[in-house]
Amino acid sequence: MKISTHKFYKIIPYYLILILIQTIPAGVYGIIHAEEIIDMKGRKVMVPDVIRSVYSVSPPATCMVYALAPDLIAALNYPPRTEEKKYMSARIQNLPVIGGWFGQGRTPNLETLLQVHPDIVLVWQWKRSATTQKIEQTLTPLGFPIVYIQIDTLRDYSNAFEFLGKLLNREQRSASLVQYAKQTMGALDSLQAKIPDAKRISVYYAEGAGGLCTDCSASIHAELIPLCCGKNVHVCEAKDVFGMEKISAEQIIQYNPQVIITRESSFYNRIYTNPCWKNIRAVQEHRVFQIPRSPFDWFDRPPSFMRLLGARWLMNKLYPDKYPVDMIEETRTFYRLFLNKALDPKAAAEILYL
To answer: Where does the chain cross the membrane (predicted)?
Structure first.
């Protein structure tokens, strides 16, 4: 069988990696002192009894390790944004960027992964069995222990932080993060009990520079809207996990949302002067809110632990009388707890776009 030159050069690095693995003495990539754990997928996995480095295949899981044990992060999924670097140590900023299985068609650099050689690979894949199988088929031959965590919903984060605390020997630190996560869910449940369905505020999640992309009501990317007693005006099932459904200006006019939320600075800065949006109720009533993004987005992309703070922010924006929290102080508390970062009131206000 003939193999084209193009295909040959795509295939050969992977085979070289497998050959390299076969030539390394036992114990270098193998686990010498190990213990068996049950991961959050219910699988039995042998891991080192002391885990010193972790690579996560997608940003939500990397963010969790960043909050819990940043010293254990072995590599990044993408180059840090300027805004993220403000909260990162020099070590984190200079870590190799491996990539991962996230976004559309992205895969990690396996050669760099072998050089980094993490003790475990942490995986979260939201209901995507095909990608999960691909991860296992790629990484299992390389000898890395694969550990699954479950963070499909915001409610899962308390259990996930508790699991990672035990796995990474950070139980004392994880206890405080678990407590905050549970308190957030308690606040959400309390608000749910106060707001009848008929009185819930309609919300449009504007994405893209023109605000003409959004996510379906059933999408993980818009999970905070119903959790915070909002009604996502774009009622549909997500076509895929990536989201960002295109929508017409006419459809938004028909929806006429009471509130618009967006992460896009360029869109937010123009919406009140853009004639295409002037008749939308949210614009007329000045209820367009820019989602904070430091160091990671509080609402989505990636859907990380920052949504625990984002949920409190959105509850306060939608129902300030029912959830009258001081968001400057709440932001300072959260950053100190999850990011080990002390903020003065001015810095917190800037993050909140106040």
So the answer is: 12-32
The verdict on residue 9 lying in a domain is no
Residue 53's domain comprises 34-177
- Predicted confidence (pLDDT) at residue 353 exceeds the cutoff of 70: yes
* CATH code of 226's domain: 3.40.50.1980
Position 188 in a domain: no
Min mean pLDDT across 19-33, 70-84, 226-240 is at: 19-33
Give the per-residue pLDDT at 169.
Answer: 97
Alpha-carbon dihedral 62, 64, 69, 70, rounded to 10 degrees: 40
Q: Would residue 8 count as lying in a domain?
A: no
List C-alpha distances in Å: 53 to 48, 73, 113, 178, 218.
Answer: 10, 6, 12, 22, 35
Cα 234 versus chain centre, distance: 22
How many structural domains are present in the chain?
2
Place of tokens 């939608």: 318
- Average pLDDT of the chain? 89
Query: Residues 63-108: pLDDT tens digits?
Result: 999 999 999 999 999 999 988 898 889 999 999 999 998 866 678 9
Cβ(152)–Cβ(162) under 8 Å? no
Rounded-to-integer distance, Cα 333 and Cα 179, Å: 13
